[in-house]
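## Example record

The block below lists the input lines for one assembly entry, exactly as stored, with component labels intact.
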Amino acid sequence: MKKKRVSIKDVAREAGVSIATISYVLNNKKGESISDETINRVREAIKKLNYVPNLSARSLVSKRSNLIGVVIPQAEAGKEFMFYNPFYGEFLSSVEYEARKKGFHLLISGTEADQKYIQVAQNRGLDGIIIVGIYPDSFFQELKQCQIPIVLVDSYCSDHYFHSIGINDRHGGYLATKHLIEKGHRKIAFISGMVKENGVNSNRLLGYKDALEEYGIDFDEKLLYLGDTNFEYGIKAGARLANSKNGETAAFATADILAVGVIKGLKENGLRVPEDISVVGFDDVYLARITDPSLTTVRQNIAEKGRQAAEIIIQTIENEIKEKRDIILPVDIVERDSVKDIN
Amino acid sequence: MKKKRVSIKDVAREAGVSIATISYVLNNKKGESISDETINRVREAIKKLNYVPNLSARSLVSKRSNLIGVVIPQAEAGKEFMFYNPFYGEFLSSVEYEARKKGFHLLISGTEADQKYIQVAQNRGLDGIIIVGIYPDSFFQELKQCQIPIVLVDSYCSDHYFHSIGINDRHGGYLATKHLIEKGHRKIAFISGMVKENGVNSNRLLGYKDALEEYGIDFDEKLLYLGDTNFEYGIKAGARLANSKNGETAAFATADILAVGVIKGLKENGLRVPEDISVVGFDDVYLARITDPSLTTVRQNIAEKGRQAAEIIIQTIENEIKEKRDIILPVDIVERDSVKDIN
DNA sequence: TTGAAAGCGCTAACAG
DNA sequence: CTGTTAGCGCTTTCAA
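Predicted C-alpha cells for the full assembly:
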C-alpha cells in the first residue's frame, strides 16, 4: 500500500492558507500577487511536508502534460527499436537533455500499429511529438487530427502542418560521391537501405547521380546495392561487392552502420579498405571514428538535430512560435582513412 | 486551441447509459457484469465518437500511471546520456519492447541531481523504476521512501528493498583473464573505468585476480589502467599500453567500448591486435562484431537483462510477485579475433 | 492580497 | 445489471 501522499490540502492546512494560495505560489502567477510573508509561509510548509505536486491532477485541469513523445523506428513492426544504429541513441540523448533543461519529460515508445500511437498520444495528453523517420502517409494524416505540435525528423513529408528538421540529404549524397570521384574513382557502388520515394535514401541517391552527371560519368543500375540499413546487410553488400564483375573501386554507403558492414564484408572476402576499395559512409556517428580504418563520411550534427527538434517542439508548445519551421542542417564531408586516392 | 476531447460523458450520452457503465466496460470489471447488449452499445459509441480515455484522470483516482521510469547514467552530472556506449541503447530497446507488450510506457530521464529524480517519480506517479548503474547510497535510501517498486540493474546495492538484476561480474572477469592465460599470456593489463567499491568494475577486477591467483601469477598494480568507461579513455590506455615497459602481451578491458578504444590506441602506436597484443572485452555489444579485429569478449545477454528488468517491475506492480528478486544472468566468453595464442 | 467553489475525466463504493 | 455520487489533486474564475 502506498503511503498517502501529501497533497496541496495538507500544505494549505499547515500554512494556514487556502489551497488556492498554494497553487498561486506554486505557479507564481503574475496576476495574483501574494504577500512575501504568505509566500514564505507556504514555501516553508511545502518544504516541511515534503510536498510534491501531482502532475496528473495538474494536467487534468490545465491540459498540459509536460510530456513529449518520441517515436523511433523499429526494426520490424512490433519489434525493438533500431537502437543498434547508434544514430538513434545519439539523437535521443540530445533530445532528452534539451527537454530536461526545459522541464519536459520524454515518453519513448515504438509503435505497434501506427494507429496505436495516436491513442497513446491522446491517452497521455502529450504536449508534443518528435517523430523520427518515414511512416505511411496515412499515419501523418491521422496525426494531424490530434492537433498536437509535431516535429518530423528526417522525413520528407511536405505537409504544411508539421515542423520538420532534417539535412540536405541530396547534397550529402553529392558530396560523398564527388569526393570519391575527385579521388579518381569512377565505378562507385551505391549501397543503401530501402529507397522509399521522397525519403532520405532516395535523396542521397539523387545526390549520387548529381555528382556522376557533373563529372560525366554514366549512371549504372548495376552499381546499386539496395537492402536494409543495418550492419548485416552491409556485410552482405560488401561480400557481393568483393565478387562483383562491375569493376567498382569505391562504395558510398548511406549510413555509417552500413558502411562498417560493407568494410567487414569486403575484408571477409579478402579485400582491403581502402587499398582495394574505398568506402564513404553517412552520418558520422560515434562508430565512424571507432572502426579501422576510421571512416570517411558525410557528417551531420546529430546532437544539434536532437537539440533543435526539442527546442522547436517546446517553443511551439509554449506558443513562442506559431508559424511552421523547416530546418535543414548543413552537412559536410569528413575525411578519415577509408578512401584511397587512385589518381 | 485544442479541440475539446470527447470524454466518458459524451460516450455515456451517446450510448444512453451512465458514465459508470462506460467505466465498467472499459475496465471490464469481473465484479460488475454488464449485459452483452449494453457492452455492444457502449463499444459502438466509443468507436463512433473516437473516444480515448484520459490516463491523467484515471491515474488521479486509481493511483496507477502505467508509467515506468528508466534511469540511465549520464556522461557527467546534468549532461547527456551515456548512449555512446551501445550497451544502454540495446538495454533500453529491450525494456521498451517488453513494457509495451504489457501496456506500459517508459519515461526516460537523466537525473540532474539525484534528489530531483525522486520528485519526478512522485510528480508523475511512476508505477515502477528501473535504475541502471551505480549511484550514491543516499539516492537509494531516499528512493526507498517513495514506496515504488524498483529494479536495480548492475548495481551491487545489497539493500533488501530493491529487486536486482545483474550478471556475475566477478566470474566474467575471471573468464576473460583465464582465457588470456590459457592462451599463454602472463602479463595482462586490466583496463577499466572507475573501480567504485562494490561496483561492476571492482567485481570484474576481483575475477581478474582470481584467475591470476589460480594460475600462480602475481598481481601487479602497474598493470592496472583505470580511467573512464568510454572510447576516449580506451585510446589513451591503448597508447600507454603500447609504450609500457611492463611487458604486457594482453589486455582485459571491462567494456567493449573501452576495448575498442584500446585497440585503436594500440594501432595508432604501431602495435597490431592480436599479433602484438591480445585484447578481451566485456559485454558483447553489437560493436564487438563490427570492429576489426572482431572482439573476443565476455558475453552477457543484454536483451534478456532488459526484458527481465521490465518483467520483474511489472509483475511487482501488478502484485504478482511480492518477494524480492535477485537475478544473476550467466556470462560466457565468446572467442573472436582479438586474442592470439602465444603458447 | 486571499479564499470559496466549480470543475477537469475518471473510478469505485453503494444503492437500487 | 446499471445508475448515483463522492471524491482523486489541482487550477482558476469570481468574490470578498
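Chain B has a mean pLDDT of 91. The first helix of chain B runs from residue 8 to 15.
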